[in-house]
Amino acid sequence: MSSLINATPVTTENLLHQVALLKQQGCRLITLTCLDTGDGHEVIYHFAQKYEMIHLRKHVANGGTLISISTIFFCAMIVENEIKDHFGIEVHGLPIDFQGRLVLSENAPRAPMNKRCGMEIDARVPEPASTVVIAPASPPAKEAVPQTPAKGGVA
Amino acid sequence: MKDKVRFDKSPWVVHFNCNSCNGCDIELLACLSPLYDLERFGIVHVGNPKHADVLVVTGSVNYRNARVLKNVYDQMPHPKVVVAMGVCAATGGVFRECYNVLGGVEKVVPVDVFVPGCPSRPEAMMDGILQAAAKLDEKRRNPDVPVAVSTDTVVRLPAPEAARPALPADTASALATPMEKIA
Amino acid sequence: MSQKSTIPFGPQHPVFPEPIQLRLVLEDEKVVEALPAIGYCHRGLEKLAEKKDFLQDVYLIERICGICSFMHSMNYCQGIEELLGLPVPDRARFLRVIWAEVHRMHSHLLFLGLLADSFGYENLFMQCMRCREDILEVMELTAGNRILLTTCCIGGVRKDIPADQMDQILLALDRVGEQLVDLRNAFSNDYTVKKRLIGVGCLTAAQAHESGAVGPVAKACGVALDLRETGYAAYKELGFKTITETAGDSYARMMVRLRELDQCMELVRKAIQLLPAGPISTPFKGNPTGEVAARIEQPRGELLFFIKGNGTKNLERFRARTPTFANLAPLLQMLPGCQLADVPIIVISIDPCISCTER
To answer: In CATH, which of 1.10.1040.10, 3.10.20.80, 1.10.645.10, 1.10.260.40 is domain C44-358?
Structure first.
């Protein structure tokens, strides 16, 4: 499997250093991409110097935390909040923390972009309140969304 | 279209974009443009729901905007009609299977007219709004017709924390990790 | 002594065609802080794109946004073509440019109309929308639909534009050109327009670079950043040059788009002139494997798609960074210090596309 050209792997220790170095070289931040790799997450930082793209690749283990680079590039704050929403990764050092509620509201599915919280479970279906399962070994059968759309008395 | 379109009063339209891709919204704007000119029927696009008789909704309902849609509808004075513009507003359209999409707007507000299309053509939109305006007249003439109410089932759904699909153990522990414990 | 108050601006607001909320901290009428509250348009399209077949995704991804829909499918197709190592026929590259530039024109005209509407100049809004109908006519003529063209496919384009339609495009461009003379005059010289736009929502070049501004927002501060310069599709043959302004205010952002309209017309005319004969698509087999970061220039700026294929018909990951997402941070820098009455103009001046931003 071919991967992105010039994607430099970084660790938690040298991430901020590398990013600061890129900023010194006059790079701008395009965005961050998070991937669920199964054994954790992979965060790819996309930078660009004029049109030339530079990527950094950071592995986040399960239960690990990501360090925010918003001290260097403030605009990373929004996308880091989005990653927190979508993947449930804790991001440390966010200047404005939306508490995982930037794009998802309080009653929306949590961390929906993770592979195991996938579409096959249909994250929209609320389970009965009595069955609080921590890690479902096999996804429960798909249920219909309980709906009572009060079709108004138009007639 | 009938050669003579007449309404009791000028139906004013408020537009709410729920979850739309903008396709229907810009076609609705095109309806107001000089080529189609909805205003010749006395239809005016207003920003305030309290001024409006017709609610035009584009796009599907998601967890966050269901509440807003309900608010907008509830603020409109009676009698009022709702037009669901485009296939997303009817069923969710291509986005029906998305995790954050609850479905058509009928889950929150009672819909009087559905306009098909992705996006709907301006001609279809105008026809839809005119049909809605005719329904509005009907409602106005029959004050005995019960008020169609919005529902808050979807707005509250799924209400309690425990009702959410459980996270995988590792993600749940990741969420529970205190900030000091950085990998 | 003034007191601070926070007001929610949106999501249902007369000026915004789309739902976005800004939490504005005000000191009397002056904005001191702005915070976005998004999510009113979030669908979860990235996840759905992983679930669908990568061929079906062309249609799905086109619906990220209805205004610049062709650009989305074009960028996605270019990314998949790169993964498959698929060459695109010359004619298809030129046809893509024609549709892309026509789309840019309709998007910019819509922007100009909405901007005029945001400061209450309804007449100008109507003029822009009338001019835009000529462009939509071209799209309907060539693709069969007014907004979502769905003409781009992996390996080329789905549909050819015959010679007689080319003549009609040129005629439509002439009509648009005539109307643009009046529009340009109104936008660049009108007292109201100048009074409301000059000096409103200023951004310096350093701020733009630092906050990652793209598209007309960056170009208006003198940052020449336009991916068409990299020569994807047929832009290399057409000789593209970035348009920039220096003032960095709302007026400059409007002027960039106004000037780009002329440039788009030139590009379409030139593409029609240089259009080579030949096939319009390359057949292919197999599924995409590997990672690619595909970028093109959308009407609002740089669009990035990260696509990861794993050799099956489903993608491993699809990620979209749309230009409005990048322009949110610059917007938050522009707002503090302005008057509450200017907030709609500043927001509209970045040409926000919320359904792009939230997907």
So the answer is: 1.10.645.10
